[in-house]
# Entry
Amino acid sequence: MSLQNLPLEGFLNLNKPYDWTSHDCVARVRKLLRLKRVGHAGTLDPAATGVLPIALGKATRLLQYLPENKAYTATIRLGVQTTTDDLQGEIISCEPCPGLTLTEVTKELAQFQGKIEQIPPIYSAIQVDGKRLYDLARQGQTVEVPKRTVKIFHTEILDWRSGDFPELDVAIACGSGTYIRAIARDLGAILGTGGTLAALLRTASSGFNLQHSLSFSDIETQLQTGTFQPISPDVPLEHLPSVTLPSISAVKWCQGQKITLNGDFAGIARVYNQDTCFLGIGKLEDSLLVPTTVVTPK
# Structure
């Protein structure tokens, strides 16, 4: 099957390589697939690797509906503090802490559970007064970064390496907006040693997992062999309820008309026709199914 005949509508579960920005990845996918309309969910820092959901074609309109939960494997180095809260920044302090024990770390890590408040790193993409924090930080401007409430669902210690600058490997499942760099920094502050993020791998994001992700090499091979196939646009939306419309109603709904529906759900839902073709996302309002995002006109 030639590239020109591929149904390039859907998602790509990309395994982001080290030292690539999320924007770099989008640009590379555009070039490989010869497709202009490409977007991503859940920005990853250049030093981080792992799952980066990529939307292709009309599926870019569905990014807002993807589930928000994420999971990471992080390595936290203690005894070191940096400007960026990871090893990419300048070192602020570097004090050996060979006496630090796993028991102490485990006790303090327990604070990072449930809803917590954290201050995002000053080098982050968050906007303050319309400007990115990392741009302000690079200009040497001091800005008060507002706290935010984030959710940590689970933490699990995977490994501990003692020494002058001990390292902790930890698995973290969390909600959107959580900065793992901030957890590393704050854990080090609580322990009184300083801490920074030494490595970060995202193992799950927005309904996609690392096990089924593709590297750029994988994608190139599949394109060469004619086996590349985007993930159906409704696959990562299975957390939403679904509605099947009769043929005539499906046509009207795709044309922007509201359809009377006695649904047993509230809010948004996946919409299908009787041939199980995914049509888009609708919202139930006062027994009317309102089109919000139509991706398959009929």
